[in-house]
Amino acid sequence: MRPEELLCPTPDGLWCPLGGFHIDPVRPVARALITHGHADHARPGHQAVMATRETLRIMAERYGAGFAGSEAVAPLGEAMRIGDVTVSFHAAGHVLGSAQIAVEAKGMRIVASGDYKRRRDPTCAPFEPVQCDVFITEATFGLPVFRHPDDTNEIHKLLASLAAFPERAHLVGAYALGKAQRVIKRLREEGYDRTIYIHGALERLCRLYAEEGIDLGPLEQATVEAGRKSGSGVDFAGAVVVGPPSAFADRWARRFPDPVSCFASGWMSIRQRAKQRGVELPLIISDHCDWAELTETIAEISPAEVWVTHGREEALVRWCELAGIRARPLHMVGYEDEAE
Ligand SMILES: [Zn+2]
To answer: Which superkingdom (predicted)?
Structure first.
């Protein structure tokens, strides 16, 4: 059997004809297997959805109960029969509930990794390498120039700025699912125990993380009233305020006097991007692999073939070929990598 007969890239997403399902489809389909809760991978309107328990919770939180005709929980590591194939979900280390999906038939196994990273993240289970014939990977940061620093450095930069500017609020832009909770949790691990203020859009996901056992410490919504009692005379003076990147362009951000604008993203390693966004304190914290993590992961799994879904595909395909691994770019569209 050719691998394309087991899993086939289509404009709707990866399609498994033997199992009758799509993985992370970009349009509503009959049966969808979902790797994780980010909006570009987990869309509403499918007839049947299978995902980890946490991802199903995240989808229900974002889209409302009844976001799909039916839901099935995929426990990590458990082999399940769908049509003529066996599927299993394995931790991806990207955000809470994120999973790789292994699809197997007639002695061939393909792993669709979704989004993943290899760094420690106290808010989700670590990536599990799964042996396979074909490994499907993204390449958001698939160029040798991308080397994400240790996130401890970045959290310490934020703490140092708080100490240096105790009269200014520190506004931290962070993607609402995963990044925001990881930044908050890492601040707690580094000893920051004051109330952290959050944008309303983060409230429900932060509560969901807390209910899943990830203690984020004292959080409060960054309302006008909260601001009044937060500082000594000045609203939110010396406070950490976390919000989704989109909130920083609207009126919400103007309630903070003379804020230090921070943004937590893998893209912050590009100085010009930070400048364009008016970011004073870039924090290079990524939920994706950098170049070394991508190539080390492929070397560790050592598949016969690699498919690269999206991102900077050509460099990674070339690296695979030089390493003696067959590789092809899939040029899949609909998977957004800018916000993370
Ligand atoms: Zn993602």
So the answer is: Bacteria
